[in-house]
Design goal:
Elements lengths: L1 H20 L7 H13 L5 H16 L5 H15 L6 H14 L5 H16 L5 H9 L1 H8 L1 H16 L4 H9 L1 H7 L2 H16 L4 H16 L4 H4 L1 E3 L4 E4 L3 H5 L10 E4 L6
Antiparallel strand pairs: 1-2, 2-3
Helix pairs in contact: 1-2, 1-3, 2-4, 3-5, 4-6, 5-7, 7-10, 8-9, 8-11, 10-13, 11-13
Organism: Rissa tridactyla (Black-legged kittiwake)
GO molecular function: protein phosphatase regulator activity
Protein name: PP4R1 phosphatase
Length: 270
């Protein structure tokens, strides 16, 4: 019964935590018994079971309970199979979504060598606009996961494609994550490539795209500033914030906050 399998998947993370804490007694139990179940249920015929499996996988990754070898030899291969061009549409959408979510939890080398090539392919998926939209909405997170060199060499060309996509929702998602993408690039790329691209979004024919671009204008401009003098920095959750100066901290003035969040980089994309 699918409900039984779903309930089982919900119990996997707490069992894994118990096994981790009791590793001397159960050194190979997770690897031998639980990990194969998680991987198998990512391809279950029931979508609720698959969803439970995906949530369990993310929790296990977040808690650092999956060995690097298992990630590279078991998890990534199944996600690459599910997101292949000839894969079922529903499986492909789910796979690209989980790839984007897990990118920030993996090592840069693993993301760049195993997942980035497929992500770049999915950005150009001409069959499913849902796949391209997930890529656009999470583009800033992928850039942050792979770093400047891979972003400028592989991702920026794909970002240009998505920013000129025929579906306005794609262009809107790009406008919303523009600051996060810009923050990952060099000042020269921001000036010579991203600035003209942003102007095209702020002049878009769709008012929803223009509105999203105007909301990202200030955060995008802030990426040109020197963090040491401007006091601007990016938090781990992807928000642009202001670091208070020593004078402000020591003053007795009543300020609303010492740490002001200006705008989320790549969340709330619709």
């Amino acid at each position: 019964e699918p409900t039984v399998r779903t309930e089982l998947m919900e119990q996997i993370p707490p069992i894994a935590i118990f096994l981790q804490e009791s590793r001397p007694k159960f050194p190979t139990a997770f690897f031998e018994y639980l990990m194969p179940i998680v991987v198998r249920y990512l391809t279950d015929v029931n979508n609720q079971v698959r969803k439970a499996g995906q949530e369990a996988l993310l929790i296990l990754l977040e808690q650092d309970l999956i060995a690097q070898s298992d990630i590279e030899n078991k998890v990534c291969p199944i996600l690459l199979d599910l997101s292949a061009p000839d894969s079922d549409d529903e499986y492909k959408v789910e796979a690209v979504n989980i790839i984007c979510k897990m990118a920030s939890m993996l090592s840069r080398t693993t993301v760049e060598h195993m997942l980035l090539p497929r992500f770049c392919e999915l950005c150009s998926d001409g069959k499913l606009f849902q796949v391209r939209k997930i890529c656009a909405a999470n583009f800033g997170d992928i850039c942050n996961a792979v770093g400047q060199e891979a972003t400028e060499r592989l991702l920026i060309p794909k970002f240009f494609e998505l920013c000129s996509d025929s579906v306005w929702g794609m262009r809107k998602a790009c406008a919303e994550c523009f600051m996060a993408v810009s923050y990952t690039t060099s000042p020269e790329v921001r000036r010579s490539k991203l600035s003209p691209l942003f102007i095209s979004l702020i002049s878009d024919t769709c008012r929803w795209v223009r509105q999203a671009a105007f909301q990202s204008l200030g955060p995008f401009i802030s990426t040109f500033a020197n963090p040491s003098s401007a006091g601007l920095y990016i938090r781990e959750d992807g928000t642009l914030s202001i670091r208070p100066s020593t004078q402000d901290v020591n003053s007795n003035s009543c300020q609303p906050s010492n740490n002001i969040t200006l705008m989320s980089s790549s969340t709330n994309a619709t």
